[in-house]
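testing teh design pipeline on a random one, pls ignore if ur not involved
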């Protein structure tokens, strides 16, 4: 159903009026594609902020109204994978992996997930989102502490998108699950495990390579359209600490649509800090 207003589908974020973080998605008017007031929108920090102000009068659009057609997604060219697939000695995320895993296994997982290195920030990592048909949807650039493996969030959150770094105009971002290009290496009897962060998917792939490990990239990105290529597979989702209830509700909806999917309570039952995930627990 189409509504008069909707959350901005692009990757653009603003400062949240509640928590002050640059994690706020504004509502737009569908017919004009213009933003509403700066306080009308949703903060992506659902667990820590949960601010969400919806526009008034957001009624379904009748057949006589203009309905904006969905935009065709933009893909990166394949050569970006090779161009950024280098300089791993200076990649701080790879340096973190070297503390825990053998060089041969790290080389294998770099190739498996097409991990890249970016000079956008010194030692930054590129996580490419490549779908099961090998279309390169996006590249997420993040900077990690090479000793702890934590993302660098001070003095600001070091996260960006390659289409912004490369200054590609009018790029239409349509995300897919990180790692889903590896689906071709697994048969329909395989178990697919989904976590939130790309780091955790890679770490778990090193620890339990018999499963296909994927990442949503954010708590809110566990969506039906991203799961469609996995119809028929056994799926287990592993939410971060304190996110179990939200993902469990989504999983039940997916079950009702015929997906063979369960939501793990493993991390939720442990005495760990908010936001902890499988990688934090096992390493």
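output:
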């Amino acid at each position: 159903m189409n509504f008069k207003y909707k959350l901005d589908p692009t990757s653009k974020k603003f400062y949240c009026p509640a928590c002050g973080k640059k994690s706020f998605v504004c509502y737009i008017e569908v017919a004009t594609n213009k933003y509403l007031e700066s306080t009308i929108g949703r903060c992506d920090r659902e667990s820590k902020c949960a601010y969400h102000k919806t526009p008034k009068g957001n009624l379904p659009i009748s057949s006589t109204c203009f309905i904006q057609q969905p935009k065709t997604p933009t893909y990166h060219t394949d050569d970006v994978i090779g161009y950024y697939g280098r300089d791993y000695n200076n990649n701080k995320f790879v340096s973190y992996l070297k503390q825990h895993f053998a060089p041969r296994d790290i080389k294998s997982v770099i190739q498996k997930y097409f991990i890249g290195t970016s000079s956008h920030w010194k030692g930054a990592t590129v996580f490419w989102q490549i779908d099961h048909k090998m279309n390169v949807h996006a590249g997420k650039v993040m900077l990690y502490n090479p000793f702890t493996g934590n993302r660098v969030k001070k003095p600001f959150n070091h996260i960006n998108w390659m289409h912004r770094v490369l200054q590609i105009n009018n790029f239409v971002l349509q995300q897919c699950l990180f790692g889903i290009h590896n689906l071709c290496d697994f048969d329909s009897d395989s178990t697919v495990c989904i976590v939130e962060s790309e780091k955790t998917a890679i770490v778990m792939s090193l620890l339990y390579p018999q499963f296909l490990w994927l990442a949503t990239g954010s708590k809110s990105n566990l969506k039906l359209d991203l799961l469609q290529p996995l119809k028929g597979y056994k799926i287990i989702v592993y939410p971060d600490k304190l996110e179990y209830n939200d993902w469990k509700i989504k999983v039940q909806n997916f079950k009702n649509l015929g997906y063979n999917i369960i939501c793990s309570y493993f991390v939720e039952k442990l005495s760990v800090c908010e936001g902890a995930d499988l990688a934090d627990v096992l390493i």
